[in-house]
Amino acid sequence: MNKSSCARVSFKFEHNFLPPVYILVFIVGLVANGWGLKSLLYNWKKLGNVNVFVLNLGLADILYLLTLPFLVVYYLMESKWIFGDAFCKITRFCFNLNLYGSIGFLTCISVYRYLAIVHPMRVKGRITLTHSVGISVMVWLLVSVQSLPDMFFTKTFGNKPGKCYDTTNKIYVEDYLKYSLGWTLTGFFIPLLIILGCYGHVIVVLCRSNTTDKLLKQRCLKLLCILILLFSVCYIPHHVLKNLNLWSRVLLKQRNCRKWSNGVFIAHQISRGLVCLNSALNPLVYLHGSENILAQLRRRLQQAYQMFNRLFLSNSGSVPVAQTADEL
After folding, report:
1. Alpha carbon distance 143, 97 (integer Å)
2. The CATH number of the domain where 253 resides is what?
């Protein structure tokens, strides 16, 4: 439907939805990644060369988590960025490093698992710690090169407090859509195909083989479930809705109005909240790598429960008992 003027998109939803999500992810993510990295370093020799990728995955998460307090302030102030244009670009750059770095390192972990299960004799002794470090450096460089063009798009309106776009303003939205589609292809879709190919072949091998170690099968299935969770909840909705929202903005700029524009914007904001959850969910990769981590988690929860009971009883337990005795 074409009109001379289009209805304005309501931005109120992002101001109400994103701050609580960012606060939750910041707290849970820091605790989970801190605990996960500690467990990783404790089990460093046991986990093998794949631990280098897991370590980088955790560092990418922490890098992004440290920017969340600034985004919370931004959205609580109803999209008024007070920290300057340079730091706005740095904040968005850190998000992109986390997102595509996470996808990259998860792809590396999947390829390593594929080689260990499907071609164990060919790679035995040939993949060293040096190879893992070198591949990690290449992932960081590739993700940085993919994310660098984003830094050259306008993110704010001068030095005055205003928007800090996660993409760019409407003047350059057509160019950004083209860049985003290419970025989605190279940074998301190709790694997804690699992961699907690796685990598709791994599942076939595991189903046909009766000699594969049960522990190895369990680890593989755990990691597969984690990847399905991450991609279905965090990555796929974000990339689909991000590009759909950019296309909607292009249409609105051309006065080509669509009734679904506001709905797409709201869905995109939900996907932005979901995609940042990857920083809190990525530590699940440590779960697949360490057999003791579930026992540790269960023990910590029991300790917290016992401590809560002791505090509750010490504060309120003695008085009710005395009253009950008098009444009896």
Report:
1. 6
2. 1.20.1070.10
Tell me the Cα Rg of the chain. Answer: 24
Report the Cα–Cα distance between both ends of the chain, in Å, rounded: 78
- Percent of the chain that is helix, strand, coil (3-state, to 5): 80, 0, 20
In whole angstroms, give the CA distance from residue 77 to residue 69: 12
Q: Is 283 inside a domain boundary?
A: yes
Contact assessment for residue 149 and residue 179, using Cβ atoms and an 8 Å cutoff? yes
Domain that holds residue 118: 12-297
Say how many domains are in the chain.
1
- pLDDT tens digits for range 137-172: 999 999 999 999 999 999 887 656 688 999 998 899
Would you say residue 308 lies in a domain?
no
The residues facing 81 across adjacent strands are: 162
Count of C-beta atoms within a 10 Å radius of residue 302? 10
- For residue 62, give both structure tokens: 């922490």
Q: 90 lies in a domain?
A: yes
